[in-house]
Specification:
Layout: H1 2-14, H2 27-36, H3 49-65, E1 68-69, E2 76-86, E3 92-97, E4 100-103, E5 110-112, E6 121-128, E7 134-135, E8 140-141, E9 152-156, H4 165-171, H5 174-183, E10 188-192, H6 202-205, E11 213-216, E12 229-233, H7 239-242, H8 249-257, E13 265-274, E14 277-291, E15 302-308, E16 313-318, E17 321-324, H9 327-345, E18 354-360, H10 368-375, E19 384-389, E20 401-405, H11 412-422, E21 426-429, H12 443-447, E22 453-458, H13 467-476, H14 491-510
Parallel strand pairs: 6-9, 9-10, 10-12, 15-18, 15-19, 19-22, 20-21
Antiparallel strand pairs: 1-14, 2-11, 2-14, 3-4, 3-13, 5-12, 6-13, 7-8, 14-18, 16-17, 20-22
Helix pairs in contact: 2-9, 3-9, 11-14
This protein binds zinc ion.
The site of zinc ion has 3 residues, from loops.
Length: 531
């Protein structure tokens, strides 16, 4: 606190222009989080009345501030979705070994994923494909030499060192994995979480399995055509699959923990599944607002700040609480966006470029709202110069260091390093590459359209006293009803994060050159020729 104050005094002397910039103290942020994560919005499930009420609240705030709508219907960009809910009472998964059948207990040993259009009935042999990755630019192929025709691939989450985190994460996405598996003739996936990188324990993962999944309506949004079966298997019971193969799951998991190469082999077991799925139409919206830029030329370009407003809604009760409030995930990011918009609109000179604020829906259902926006933007696509996304930035410890996802991928990383250093904070790349964070939130929808993007969080150094606090937060509160307003937060850390976000927004909007991917970035490939 003290050293920070001294630092700011020095700043005023050396750079008096900074005096005009707002300093956030976290209080306005928490006031908005307190509204969005209130029980009355019932966890803001995609397409629910609670989500709509939360959207109306944000729209009302924007209107009161005089910030312009930039959706297709006022502030809103309507989106058609469909839900899929598994009826477990009429569904089953059976393992067959040496002609003997072993029915699995759904929820304990495995559960269906309704992220795909499950086939009503399927029977197929199983093949363990290791990490299940095909990475042409590294000549890496987990499917080489395996017969996958008509079979179900058993995958273990993770990637082998020294594959970069970004590359490993990209090729583990459902779309990329399925492209390679479909080409190899497979018809489904049985996914084993990696015990070394599971955010939440199986006992909690499994609670959400009968919640509705959702998908964007339209064949162009179907990433998994031809995929007939998708289920998650409990690593604790994985030897039900590996018995008789000459390998134990303990041996394989030990290799995966160290990111070592994995053996790949046909399993002496096959699978039969019956799936009954109920599907219904769902309607939701993205929420879009703009603060126009002042520059005659650059004003036609847009810096996007995005954050998802949806969360998980009402689900299985834990400790008697069934409302999944999503205070950190992601009322925190949604509230931060509103703070930045307010600070820019009130009392800051207009920036050169326009700033587009996008509160997306359907993130928890698979980045659906951001995907819809990034492929059907409400402003000209080629004029979007960057996306800075915020999802669950976790101000639960004092802010000393920011973790930046995509730090080395574009010069947005250099810009955030510069502004953070200026404000007295360090930055680091993702210290936990196995968690795949770069592709796990809405920035990825923009990245796939070629738009330089990043996301950041309050960080910790590996081995620091803060590290176990983050781990504990994930284990106990992530996607649980206890991610609510009763949890401890650090307002100064939230304020410091907002200072960085504000300074980054100003830097990107005012810099004459638009952000660019680094020449050696894997993600540069998505940038269209006209960019
Ligand atoms: Zn989430």
């Amino acid at each position: 606190m003290h050293s920070r104050a001294v630092f700011l005094c020095l700043l005023l002397v050396t750079a008096p222009i900074r005096a005009a910039e707002p300093h956030f103290d976290g209080k306005s942020w928490w006031a908005t989080v307190s509204v969005l994560a209130d029980d009355k919005f019932a966890g803001r499930n995609t397409g629910s009345p609670g989500e709509r009420a939360a959207q109306d609240f944000v729209a009302g705030q924007l209107r009161a501030l005089g910030i312009r709508p930039a959706g297709t219907r006022g502030y809103f960009q309507p989106i058609d979705l469909k839900s899929r809910t598994i009826d477990e009472s009429r569904s089953s998964i059976v393992l067959i070994r040496d002609g003997r059948e072993q029915p699995l207990s759904l929820g304990r040993e495995a559960y269906f994923s309704t992220r795909i259009d499950l086939a009503p009935f399927i029977a197929a042999p199983l093949v363990f494909v290791g990490y299940g990755l095909k990475v042409p630019e590294q000549g890496y192929d987990d499917y080489a030499g395996l017969d996958l025709k008509g079979k179900i691939a058993v995958t273990l989450a993770g990637s082998p060192a020294p594959m970069s985190a970004a590359l490993g994460a990209h090729y583990q996405t459902a779309a990329e994995r399925w492209k390679a598996l479909k080409a190899a003739g497979a018809i489904g996936v049985l996914a084993l979480p990696n015990p070394a990188s599971m955010d939440i324990p199986w006992s909690r993962m499994t609670l959400s399995r009968t919640q509705a999944s959702m998908a964007l309506v339209g064949a162009e949004f179907n990433d998994t055509p031809g995929e007939l079966f998708l289920a998650t298997f409990n690593p604790e019971y994985a030897d039900l699959l590996f018995a008789g193969s000459g390998h134990t799951f303990a041996d394989i998991a030990a290799l995966a923990k160290e990111r070592k190469p994995l053996p790949r082999f046909a399993l002496p077991v096959s699978l039969r599944a019956t799936a009954r799925v109920v599907s219904e139409p769902v309607h939701s919206n993205n929420l879009v607002a703009v603060i126009p830029g002042r520059d005659t030329k650059l004003g036609a370009e847009y810096v996007v700040l995005s954050a998802h407003l949806d969360h998980l809604g009402v689900g299985q009760a834990i400790n008697g609480d069934s409302i999944y409030n999503g205070a950190m995930d992601n009322a925190s990011g949604a509230a931060m966006l509103l703070d930045i918009a307010r600070a820019l609109q009130q009392g800051h000179a207009p920036l050169k470029r326009s700033v587009l604020f996008v509160w997306v829906t359907g993130e928890e259902k698979g980045l659906l709202g951001s995907r819809y926006f990034a492929t059907r933007p409400t402003v000209p696509a080629a004029k979007i110069v960057a996306d800075v996304n915020t999802d669950m930035f976790l101000p639960i410890v004092p802010l000393k260091i920011l973790t930046v996802y995509g730090l080395a991928e574009s010069d947005l990383g250099d810009r955030v390093s510069a502004v953070a250093t200026h404000l007295g904070y360090a930055v680091q790349a993702d210290p936990e590459p196995l968690r795949n964070s770069f592709v796990r939130s809405d920035q990825y929808s923009f990245i796939k359209q070629g738009i330089p993007s990043l996301a950041m969080k309050v960080g910790f150094l590996p081995g620091s006293p803060e590290e176990p606090l983050f781990k504990q937060w994930l284990t106990e509160r992530y996607h649980a009803p206890s991610d609510d307003l009763a949890q401890p937060v650090n307002l100064a850390a939230a304020g410091g994060f907002e200072d960085v976000m504000f300074a980054l927004t100003v830097a990107v909007a005012d810099e004459p050159l638009r952000p660019e991917w680094k020449s050696d970035s894997f993600f540069k490939r998505f940038a269209a020729a006209e960019f």
